[in-house]
Amino acid sequence: MSRAIELFARMHEVRSVTADERGRQTLTGDVILAVLGKVQHKMPLGMDLLMAKYVHDAPAANRIIDVMATWLNDESLKRKDLAIALSCVALDVFCDKPVASQKRQLAALWRKYSDQAKRSNRLIRRWQVKIKQLQPNIDSCETQTAEERLLSAIYELEALIIKERRRIDEYAQSQSLKSSTCPRCNGTGSILNTGECPSCNGRGLFVPSVDNIRQHLRHIGLGRVSDKLWDSELKPWFEKCLGRMYVESGDTTQILSNFLYNESDLDNGLCFI
Fold first, then answer.
1. pLDDT confidence of residue 177
2. What global pTM score does this model have?
């Protein structure tokens, strides 16, 4: 039930649910779950699209890919291997997920501009300064024990630097998988006193473009796609897949909203503002 309620909440996050005059919640979790189950039966693909987009439901995404594979049966495509790969990319675009090259760029930005990265870099610089201060003293050590003690201190600092760099790398990779929002401008598309954010080109998000998608095909080992093949076959197929997803999800959202409004009318007083 919690996933169903989460889906409902995320779909309506810009709106709020009001209580009736007695302050009682008028749309319960059971009602929401029943409505979602009804819509799932009526519009299975549309509900899977919403679940994949809003709550990152992996089984729903797998079912969508299986459905898209059946779309190929109605198409006279010469490169069906590329078409099915593009279908998966279209699903990522629908779910607002960046492609691999953009994920690498996002990770690099998180590594450089996040608050965690800034704290880590301050620590690393502090340890590097200590190492530089200790190194000249090695030659002036009077005993081997003193030299070993000094080298041990340097090795410990170097180990801390390696550990901290690994830590920020893991953090950046993790963050790049969670959100497509540009960490440099925090999704605003602009940087204070400098204008448009150069990292995301003022978009605030990393959403795949046509060029990104063609590069992605090469990245996943499907080779370079000629302009003729792309323009005549693959690009229209990609746009068709993406269009069908938006239409199906839009129709499903409308049906879901209608059912919810009907339920709220029965319960006397739920409204969205």
1. 80
2. 0.61
